[in-house]
Each structure stands twice: as structure tokens, then as C-alpha cells.
Amino acid sequence: MIAITGTIISIIVPYPFKFQSPANQNSVLTNFLNPTKLITIKSHCFNQTSSNCKPKNPPTTNPSNPNSKRPNRRRSSSYGTSRKSALKKSFSQEQVNFSGSVSNDPVVGIIGGGMSGLICALYLEKRGIRSTVFDTGLHGLGGRMGTRIIDPQPLIFDHAAQFFTVTDREFAKLVDLWSGKGLVREWHGTVGELEAGGHFIPLPSYPPRYIGANGMRPLADSILSQTHLVNVVQPCWVSTLEPFNGMWHLSEKGKNCGQFDAIVIAHNGKCANRLLASSGLPLIARQMKRLELSSIWALLAAFEDPLPIPAGATAFPFEGAFVKGVDSISWMADNTKKLLGSQSHGPHCWTFLSTATFGKQNKVPQESIPIATAERVKETMLADVEYALGLSKSSLQTPIFTRVQLWGAALPINTPNVPCIFDPHGRAGICGDWLLGSSLEAAALSGMALANHISDYFQSGGKCPDEFAVGLGNQFQPLKGHDIGQFPGLQSEVQVNKALSVQLSA
Fold first, then answer.
1. Alpha carbon 285 to chain centroid distance?
2. Helical (H) or strand (E) element with 299
3. Residue 388: which pLDDT band, with cuts at 50, 70 and 90?
């Protein structure tokens, strides 16, 4: 296919070819190919070999008069006005093609300070590469690794990621390092499944469950504490990506955020889609658009006294439970016991997370939740806590504190099952839990994979870029797991034994 636009002539030739991985390339990446090859014959705008080349929209013929040579000055739609318009804009944009040599001292811009973005920055440093992490958080880093502290008591809640498991060796090394620094510890409290009516069944103690020693957010804030090549900028909403003079120029509502040899998108949802809609990265934008996310409500509630223990759990008061058979509740956990231990005499702080179905049914703009919606969600979820515990109606003690929060783009429900995505022509990549699953471990592994992949690309000097294309054409499959995410090794005794046999034989 030949596309001619102004002075730009590009030939896009789909062809199958065997992926030739560099010698030091992670073998897990070798099966993921770019299905098309872009051969740029002449480019007035996006071929970054010219120092005077600046992106612009070439003039087009007026569609109402094919013989007219007047440029079509139709006003483009506003930035991300709708999913449909953003989708059309994403797929029709022209591919950026950086063809110049790679800098001897490259720097990477990472947009998103969740687990995957932080680990990507950490592992880039291990390879001697500088980076800047841009994060929107007002209170700290971590994305969905959220911990909220309410003064003056204080009340403490992990209100997003609740705990995580470890099955991968490389991730295990990282967790051991965090454990040695006192950032994480094993959660020995009883965790199980709570069926509607109060029947509780404990889960096996293997694999170990880990939590942030002082909550999930302090763990996230500490990951980059001893790095020297990583800069963190927050709060910052990167709103524009512009390729110019062989570099990516980032800005926040017109304010310059710096220029970078490569960029990493380490967040998702509508903000990421809008950012990519006019970036010149249609292949990456297409993959991001295929991602589907759930919505989850979090209800934080503090009680003066301990909650009543279900009849089936009298011998072991539980600290966390996956809730079954209840419309609005999928998880509940006692943060006070989990984080402060059984010796704490303060209020009992519980986190209740909704089902994905309830989140979808009650989804509203999370930036401006109507008071009536917040009240309805709170009352419904508290009533279902009674139902889950097998209590009589209206017998649950009145909380001394409540707050609801909607995670509008909570967890992935489909995945391309690839460690990372990288477009070598545009020198841009994506990392995130959704690429491998829906867990903290998946997020960390994705960040590691992309950091090593980008490092190998830089080390190659940017030569033979097609060999570094990964994840640009992978199809998505439905993702299974709990409504609050995946916990590898925890689902059943069969999966636990399988994980053990894999580790022993590796």
C-alpha cells in the first residue's frame, strides 16, 4: 500500500519475518513481533534525520471540491472529546520514525509512577540509563498502591492493592531486598473466603502473602529512595508528546517538561488514550485502546469495636476475606490488625472493595462523585457487609468514619499476554500489570522487561530497529482472577502444587 500525503511518501509492507533477538535479549520477548514494516522513502515531517524538521499537518484538498487546491482548514475535534473521535484520531495518525543515531547518554521519560513505572526506572538505572518519572499523585507515588491516613487518630487504610504474592525468581529477589530494608513483611493473619451468611473458609498459608510494612504507598515511595539516575516530578499531568529533532518533547498544558530519547507510558485509561491520540504512535495507541478496565468502589469504614465474627470463624478471627455470593462486596480486610497488629487498641479500620459488576452499575466520573451516589454506594455496601457476615438487618454498628472512593479504571479484564510493548521506530514503550495479568508481580515484571528491552535497544545503537519491535500486534484474551486482581499461587491447592513443581524443576 502506498500512502501519499503532501511531500510524504511511505510504503507499508506487511510481511512475515523471523524475530532475530540480540544475544543478550530476554528470551521471553522473542515470540512477539511487529506485524508490519514501515519503510520511509521520504518524509518531510516525521523522519527525524533533519534538524529543521518539525511536525505539522500537511495541507489536504477540500473534500467538497476535488479540484480545489485550497487547504482544508477544518477545525480538528477537541482533545479527547469522545472515545470514538479519539479512536479515529489514534489510528489515522502518521507513524513517527526516528532514524538518527542513539545518544551515548540517553535519558528516558516515564509517564506514570505506579509499580511498573517505578520498577522500569529502577532497572534502567541498573543498566546505567537516566530517567525522569512523571506522576500525577498529590500524596505520593504508587498509583493503585494507595494508603490513606486520616488524622488525628490516626486511621489507616490500604484502599487499593491489598497484598501480593511472589512466584517469579527475579521478583522474589526484589521482595527479599525490600524485606531486608523493612519495607515489606509477610502477612500472617488469617485470609480466606467468606460466603454470604457468614461461612468462612481459610485459604492455605502458601504461598506467602506480603504487605507494605507501613502500608502500600510508603513502599512505593521508597522504591526509588536510593537511586542516583532517576528524577521524580509530581504532581504532573503530561498532556502532550511531540517528536522534534530526534527527541520526544513532553509538556504539561504548554509548560515544558523536558526532552527524552525514549518514552515509557506506564499508566492507562482515558488519560493515556488521550495522550496517545495525537502522539504519532498509532501502533502503540491501538494496543492501548484494546485494553478494557473494570471499575471498583472502595469503602473505608472505621468502627469503635471489632466487627462480629461469623459463626464459622470463631476459632480464627479473619483479617481478610474474598467475599462470595454478595452483590456489592468482593473483598473486606481489617487494616488495623493487618498493619498495626492485634495489640492495637484504636478504632478498627476496614476496607471494603466492591464487585466489578457493582462498580459498573454505579460508575460516575470519579473526579466529581455526586453526593447522592456516594451515599447510596455506602449504604448498599454496609448492608451487604451485614449480609456477608450473617448478621441481622440494621444490626451492624454505626461507623465512626466512612469515605467512598471510585477507582474508575481499576483493573484490567483482558490482556495481550506480553511482558511489554515497544515501538523501536517511535522509541516508545508501554509497561503495566495488564500486559501479563492483574497483580503487583505482573506490574513489576513488566517494568523490568521494558527497562531491559530499552537498554538493549540503546546498546545496539538503534540499528536494525525491527528486531526490537515487541507486542505491537498481539491479540487480547480475557483475563481471569478475583475482582480485586490476581494473586499467583493463591487460587487453589492445585495451582499451589503446580507453582512448586515449576520452581523445583527450573
1. 15
2. strand 296-303
3. very high
pTM for this entry: 0.80
3-state secondary structure of 211: strand
Q: Say yes or no to pLDDT of 257 above 80.
A: yes
For residues 80 and 274, the answer to whether their CB atoms sit within 8 Å is: yes
> Among all chains, which residue has been given the C-alpha cell 532514524?
99
Angle 23-25-26 (CA atoms, 0-180°, nearest 5)?
Answer: 135
The C-alpha cell 457493582 sits at 358
Rg (CA), the chain: 25
Residues 228-255 have a mean pLDDT of 93
**CA–CA separation, 184 vs 176, rounded Å?**
9
Q: Which residue has the cell 522509541?
A: 427
Q: What is the b/e burial string over 346-363, where b = at least 16 CB atoms within 10 angstroms of the residue's CB?
A: ebbbbbbbbbbebbeebe
Single-letter amino acid code for the residue at 358 = F
421-423 and 428-430 as β-strands: parallel, antiparallel, unpaired? antiparallel
- Cβ atoms of 54 and 247 within 8 Å: the answer is no
How far apart (Å, rounded) are the C-alpha atoms in residues 83 and 277? 10
**DSSP conformational letter for 44:** S
Could you tell me the CA-to-CA distances from 84 to 8, 268, 273 in Å, in that order? 27, 17, 11
Q: Please check whether residue 349 is in contact with residue 155, taking contact to mean a CB–CB distance below 8 angstroms.
A: yes
Q: Give the three-state DSSP class for 386.
A: helix
> Which residue, chain included where needed, has cell 509538556?
251
